[in-house]
Task: structure prediction
Amino acid sequence: EVQLVESGGGLVQPGGSLRLSCAASGFTFSSYWMSWVRQAPGKGLEWVANIKQDGSEKYYVDSVKGRFTISRDNAKNSLYLQMNSLRAEDTAVYYCARVLYSSGPDAFDIWGQGTMVTVSS
Amino acid sequence: SYVLTQPPSVSVAPGKTARITCGGNNIGSKSVHWYQQKPGQAPVLVIYYDSDRPSGIPERFSGSNSGNTATLTISRVEAGDEADYYCQVWDSSSDGAIFGTGTKVTVL
Result:
């Protein structure tokens, strides 16, 4: 079964750090672009970052540039999101998602169940 | 940056047809993808590349894209179709994915 399982969410104070993990199974992880997508409580979906198969290309939404770092370990079939200098507006459910790719990144065809990050004092 | 606009809500009676629009500047030149999200659950891809259906998605779900509007159509609506629906494209100018504002579909 193709599956993505996130972990690492929790409550953190403003200015703090958190590292999210996403464990992939049931497919060849190293063959896919991967992304993080978040959803603030009661709000819509927001793409956060994505990473190429070999980690050589990474892209971020402007609001997290310089604070978040996406990475992957293909040997461990795992995706990560290191989040530093966290702000209240980063509070959201964070989803790991697999990216379909043709001439460029396209749809998110597989999603994890999400992990909640709450930034509050 | 690129903006995708959806109606906040659509109401439809069981057995009827729901149409959800996604407006964007020259969106017809882009590939549009659609997601269904039920309360407390992760999004599910229901249409990709404008009109393709992933395996397991009923034929009642269809999509089209032309000009400045993409449309997700749900035929013979069922109570289980009640959910939030989001359109999505990739924006080459920002090298990122853009989601629409989301539409809540209510089955009367």
The radius of gyration of chain B is 13 Å. Strands of chain B lie at 9-12, 18-23, 33-37, 44-47, 61-66, 69-74, 83-91, 96-99, 103-107.
